[in-house]
């Protein structure tokens, strides 16, 4: 990188990682006011925004607070903000966004009324409805509640992360004031449907509990109450060095996660606010900037299940359902294994079904000629058909090696469970490598036919998760090319045994090699551009944070190479800065599906190089993950991918572009044609499967 280092390193050329993530979550929030989205889908985007924000506080904000506690004042290495400055900017920005979120909720609630769907306040219920909730409270709620007194003998309770609680003030016979806390049980549904003549009427569980609070404190009078919710630090500190057994270490840490330090307090805006606030802030040790005063129901993640239940009656208010189609590379009834021996197979989920990938493992489990199955698993669904197939394969006496990544954040508990189940079934389970997360997506099936060994390799950009495969866009391929087979064998041996890092034909593996390869590829594009003046790079990913790679893009832009970046989430690079990044364009597509595929394309004066990867251009993916980057070798597949990239670059419905200040706005529609990439890909999948191609 040499002399250009300093020139491209100035803090004003970068977006801070955390603030860039908030800008992404703002794009999610904006979908709730996009009139092209059906009403219940708009409501669901409010839930996605909330759930994203919870995780952000539990991990990113918690980490910054830890730095402040440890008196760490060094600015981060891109935009140059100290931990304190970041926390303050995050707080300002998030307070603004949460206010917008609740304004959006109010507006959507009034639209729901037009569809005969309404959340009622208790004092507006009919006598029939009131009798109904009284009975409901007595039968189903009261037995589950546990009032917790707070006094000299019973200290302020340790409340669960993300739980909803009511703090209550009571006055007794002797006029002495007492305080108690009642947790809103998460085992009960958050909303209760009321009997009503017309339409759908609901009441929130916390309102019902609050209405009947007196019944919990017989002999006392409830003088006031207030709803609040806390978010805790949920980042696991796993001590890998010296851990005899990572499985046990993680199980131990998971128990502690529920009780991390409070990093945010959400509290409803009512008359009792001033009475309880000092006590809550003191007991929970939260500061002013962590306080969110909410006008409306706390914790909108309940809208996930609410929209899902309501959609059964109101299907005109959700996206039209679609059925993932058979892949274009497979004819109905055609054997995946036979076809793969003749050509590489390409998959584009969720437009094309994920079932063939499940069948790939399932058929291998039953095929008497299959000797071994090896697979990496990062996030797996509950009741996963892939896990079932692997267990069956082991029971059928095949050599099954599964790398289960125990450290996949918020999936640790699931993965510990899967690891145990697979071991019980006779699979050889490995947990990856010390200090590295295995994030690569690869499966190898070894078959012996007519005394010849055949190797089938599946490589992908997304997890082996049949549930998320319906809502994440990802790409994958199955190949029987000899060099891919050799690479896959070497890769698994490297993971499971003691061996020096192998050299590969096609696979490029992080840590170490992926960043180096990207730098070599960008350098090559710069060199070719100097000669032919037609340099073009397109890179699509979830997030871009890696400073050496950003500086490389700046160098390419300064040399005149055209760089198109399609980045859904965090982007620390700022486009359009004169002399630095004026040839770089950054866009983000947030739509019905979560854009998850990673595609890296280099024009190379017509000798196009097209690669797929499990890795984003993030420092952690380059340095702290085992990742795979692999070339797409078939011309027809390259063309398909290029067409998809072109489509995304012309999207004018769901795309936002970033300006040189780091601010995103909707694309200006130059022509009248509306281009919504995801909708077009859906239509195309249907067209191909109906044989119109």
UniProtKB/TrEMBL annotation:
Active site: residue positions: 439
Gene3D superfamilies per the UniProt record, alphabetical: Endonuclease Chain A, Polyphosphate kinase middle domain, Polyphosphate kinase N-terminal domain
Polyphosphate kinase N-terminal domain location: 14-119
Stretches assigned to the Polyphosphate kinase C-terminal domain: 336-500, 507-678
Pfam families, A to Z: PP_kinase, PP_kinase_C, PP_kinase_C_1, PP_kinase_N
Binding positions for ATP per the UniProt entry: 52, 472, 568, 596
Binding positions for Mg(2+) per the UniProt entry: 379, 409
Residues in Polyphosphate kinase middle domain copies: 128-306
The EC number(s) this enzyme carries: 2.7.4.1
CDD domains: PLDc_PaPPK1_C1_like, PLDc_PaPPK1_C2_like
Keyword DNA-binding: no
Post-translational modification: An intermediate of this reaction is the autophosphorylated ppk in which a phosphate is covalently linked to a histidine residue through a N-P bond.
Similarity annotation: Belongs to the polyphosphate kinase 1 (PPK1) family.
Protein name: Polyphosphate kinase
Taxonomic placement: Bacteria, Bacillati, Bacillota, Bacilli, Bacillales
Gene name tied to this protein: ppk
